[in-house]
Design a protein that fits this description.
The protein is about 30% helix and about 25% strand. By secondary structure, it is an alpha+beta fold. α6 (about 210-220) crosses α8 (about 270-285). Bound molecules: pyridoxal-5'-phosphate. The site of pyridoxal-5'-phosphate has 13 residues, from α6 and β13. Pyridoxal-5'-phosphate binds next to α6 and β13.
Length: about 290
């Protein structure tokens, strides 16, 4: 089945899909995006993703590319046309095409690109069995990382550094030595008492949709969550550590900066969250 993308009103062959050279996303990273997990044929947490998109657009004074309800239909249609049962949908909105100028262009229509991709569930399941390694890097991003913009160069460089160190994610650390979040994920630990800890999302991190849904999953499993900062030292000494994102759900972290977390194997709490996640997300959908 050939892959199909949606570009500014048209379903086109993925291989032929393109945008204009003066798209502001391309020239200024003047755009926002969402990545949604597709599981068992439905878009997980679609409403929450579109709520966050609404916030990102509003923070950047950018217009919706189409009516929200139409966008939902297009996303579902793209998933259908690509035959995706498990995988992801990526959607990106930019301020549109205009002659290069820093100022917002007047009367320019936002650009919309949506792609969908199949991912075999076994790939992530296998990763979760062994867990991932993270490194820590000093925070060097702008102050508005709560907006999901396509300006991700520091994240690219941090993740590249992680790869060079044999790790799969980089955790940004603030000046006080506290973990902020990963290059494309939120960061969590489990204390010796079995309490989940994650940094508050009011400022300085992206409020992950998976993070929000994990609060519900934890509550259904009778687990306590503390929203507070934690240091790299506390994470290294924790009972468990993990990351969350739409593409990884809850993924065990087994080493931080080369030091094993606990016994260096995925912990039971994160694995139970992972296992319960889709059932609980689906139940809410129903
Ligand atoms: N933090 C950052 C910087 C991210 O890029 C992402 C996802 O891409 C997340 C957190 C997790 O967000 P979500 O759970 O909505 O995927």
């Amino acid at each position: 089945m050939p892959r199909i993308a949606y570009v500014n009103g048209r379903y086109v062959q993925h291989a032929d899909a393109c945008v204009h050279i003066e798209d502001r996303g391309y020239q200024f990273a003047d755009g926002v995006y969402e990545v949604c997990e597709v599981a068992r044929g439905y878009i997980v947490d679609a409403k929450r993703h579109l709520d966050r998109l609404a916030r990102s657009l509003s923070e950047l004074q950018m217009a919706w590319p189409m009516h929200r309800s139409t966008l939902e239909i297009v996303m579902a249609e793209l998933v259908r046309r690509n035959g995706v049962k498990n995988g992801l949908v990526y959607l990106q909105v930019t301020r549109g095409v205009a002659s290069r100028d820093f100022l917002f262009p007047a009367d320019t229509k936002p650009s919309l690109v949506i792609t969908a991709k199949k991912i075999a569930p076994a790939i992530n399941a296998k990763k979760a069995e062994s867990g991932i390694k993270v490194i820590t890097v000093p925070e060097n991003r702008w102050d508005r990382v709560d907006i999901k913009t396509v300006g991700l160069l520091p994240n690219v460089l941090a993740k590249e550094k992680a790869k060079a160190a044999g790790a799969q994610e980089a955790w940004f650390v603030d000046e006080a030595g506290n973990v902020k979040e990963g290059g494309s994920s939120n960061a969590w630990i489990v204390t010796k008492d079995g309490v989940l800890v994650t940094r508050p999302a009011e400022h300085g991190i992206l409020r992950g949709i998976t993070r929000t849904t994990l609060f519900e999953v934890a509550s259904e499993l009778g687990l306590k969550i503390e929203e507070r900062g934690f240091s790299v030292a506390e994470a290294k000494a924790a009972r468990e550590a993990f990351i969350s994102s739409a593409t990884t759900i809850a993924m065990p972290v087994v080493a931080i900066d080369g030091a094993p977390v606990a016994n260096g194997h995925p912990g039971s709490v994160v694995l139970s969250l992972r296992e319960a996640f889709f059932d609980i997300a689906e139940k809410r959908l129903a």
